[in-house]
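HUMAN: Quick job: go over this next protein and say how the chain folds.
***
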Amino acid sequence: MEHSSDKQALYKHEVLREWLIAEAADTDDERLRITLESIGDLHAAIACVVRSYLEDLTLVAALGIRLDEMQSRLARLEARADEKRVLVTSVMEQAEIKKLTEPDFTLTMRRTLPPLIVTDESAVPAAFWIVQAPILDTPGLTSALRCGQAIPGAKLGSGHPVISVRSN
């Protein structure tokens, strides 16, 4: 004979399982949603979501590596393009060519405005300095509050639960 508390726990688990299914329906992970609908046990449903979470973390890591590789390739291509721009500029300058017209592009060379070179910041008059508002030292403020110091205008918020998953 089932106790009332057992029935309540079973009902709560069913409600939470349905909630997991509903939340999964809002994601773009169709496979997870379909799998969750076929699972009748809350623990198994949670395990299913965690496995999907671990797969997502693996994809995130793999994409991060790929992005790093692509960023390196981008940097190489940018450097190569810049080297070609410098080469063409140098050759055109030495040959005193101001304009080159081709069927697919027109190339012109001109001098830029002289750049600013600050040789001694302390000698620059105050009129050329921009005063900025102070910036809050949030790491220092957090550290002081965690050490028990009372600071007007600031307090520590409530922590929130997090999960930790170790894969075997």
In short: The chain has a mean pLDDT of 85.
